[in-house]
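Working notes for the structural subgroup meeting. M.R. asked for a predicted model of this chain before we commit to crystallization trials. I am recording the input and output together here so anyone reviewing the notebook later can reproduce the run.

Input as submitted:
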Amino acid sequence: MREKTRVKSLFTWVPFTSVAASSEMQGTSLEDLSMITFEPQTRTWECARYCKFPQEIVIRLNYRSEIAHLILMAKEDRFIPEVEIHIGDGVSGSFLDVEYRLAGKGENISTAPRQLNILGIGTFIKIVFMKGPPQTNKNPCGQVGLALLKVWGQPLGYYKGVVNEATPLRAGREEVDKLLIEMGLPIDNVNWSYVDEQSYTYAPVDDDTRQTLIDMEKKRDQAFKVQDYEMLKTLVKDLKIVFDVIYQSDFIRQEMTSQNSRGNSNQQLEEKSLKVQLISGQAIFDMQNYYQNKLRRLEMQRDQYDALYETSRYEDMIVMARPSTAQLRAAQLAEEEDRRRREFLRRQKELEDEEARRRRMSELDEAERLRRMREEEEERRRKAIEDASRRKDNAERRKSKVKENFTNQKSKETDVNIKGDPLESNDGDIDLEPYLNPLLSQAGGKYEKLGIEALRRALSDGTLLVCGVKLWTALHSDNWRHREASVKAFLEYIQAPLKKKYIGKTKRLFLACCDVATIACRDKLLQIYFIGLQILQTAMAPPICGDDIPHKIINNAVKPFIQLLIDKISELNYRARDVSLHALMSLFRHPAVDIRQLIEGIMDITEKGPTPDKIQWRIVLARLEILLHVVQEFGINNKAWDWRVVFQKLVGPSFFNQNPDVRLIAIEVSLEMYKSCGGELKRMIQELDGLKPNLLQTITKRMQEIDETRGTKYVLGGAQGEKGNPDGNNGLEQVAETHEWSEQSPTNANNKNKNPSFEENKAE
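Returned structure, recorded in token form:
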């Protein structure tokens, strides 16, 4: 038997040339995609910044090919959300004249190479980017870009369009066909010249192979017309190969049929034994498998020739039928069921992990709690032992000290005071040197020395001998870092244990703290303002504000801060506003501070300028909030301030302010005052001229609710503020960090009246 020719696969990487792009980023090139390399390029194509999608690029293959798949890879930070691949088949002419068909789609193409399977034959490939990626910091314009593009396919022989003008395209047979049709010959019998001994039209083959042979004959005739003898020789050879392949296929089918008939006849013989029947059946089965495999290989060989010459049968094979609605619905249901199953499994795993994590955390918390209890117990035992030892050592040290040591130390400090010029350096510089020098070194820069007149004024007040020349000069520096360093150093100094020279004599230190706090609170920087408030808080608390300081000095020292804090509360900076309000309330919790000063401070707007209903809303709102906290925390003391004047000049006109927040806070102040003043305040509200009925109705309803809830206690005038509390210990709260002030509300403070006038009233 002669040797059969086997068609080998010619699939390879198909070279191509870039043709056109709808837009291109400056500095990138579409030509770089045609380089024969498998490494991603950085200067390859990228769409323009402000282009509109869809965007497309077109490439032309170097020869007509059967395309199997494409490999795409996006550039970094330029990933491709959705892309479509179109194939155009055209031998000559522009890429615009070619008809394109959709061959495949792809989604979410990133910096990893992505293979898109497509199927088709053509010369041009159009890649359409349907939409751009979302905008990010590294891709602000939502661009797409390609770093790698490769085409996998096999080249095909094709008709190049070269025509020999000496040989006419219309043969003599066609003229005879035309004449016969005009004479009335049926069209089915026109192909009379093909029915000869060399024709395959009526060959004893199956219908699929006959269609293949007919299409190959047409290719052969076309090659003969254009005098492409190389193509003609190849077609004649391939026609014989295909015919021989089908001949072998028919022979195999006949053998398979004969084997089946012999197997059926053997089963009908009853005299054969069962063993003989099994052996015969096994042999027939093996032979049938051999014939089926060989027949499949022959059909695949025939299909390869169909693909090589692109017969009509091959076109039918590659065209995929559109799925029906039922098939699509079934696919959707299957996908939805699979998604629900995956979601259920994922949720179940999350719940199991959460339960395991919760159990593990509870075990860790219990172990941590037991460990902390053991450590606390050991710490308490160790502290008890150390305290006992320390008390014993202190007792022995006190016995060994004598009075002369204290006298010598005091005289030594006095000598340091009088030694040299106090305007150059004094004992305040010595005390603050460990706190100030590190902070000034950290701040950097130099500061100019303060004028001699300013230093003399500070020396006459006694502040310079406490703060020192260096700190007082840095406090007035133009550099905010020096000012911040100075107030921080002074805060650390007063928070440390007191010097021996100030024990029992803290008047000079207290006044110096108030002076430094005043300068810090008037600074424009918020952090320096907060440190000034901390200095004031520390100064108003023991041991600095001790029993040796008269109440008159304390009231005079607090007075400058009242208006300053009220102005800060009127600002729009909510953090400074809340901190200042808390600090202001803390000042008047001190038993020596008179509440009358605060009432006079918030009533200053009624003495000058427009009335509260026409003044700026934030100024009125700040004073009403302060009054509300005063009434809630300290009550109403008729001996300290007259609530009727406050209501007539401040609260009443605020009902007519244009800002709704001012009117609401005015209502709350009236209700708090009603709890102490009773029906007299209610009559004053009803007598206001021009008050809107809805406001009057709201206030009346709220007052009735108060009467129903609390009984007649408030109507009879039983003021909460008249119940004084003699407990005046630690009236000011130490605030460690300023951000905690803004989180606290003064209304949550201990609702006790610590005004000295209340104490006097109670004593009477």
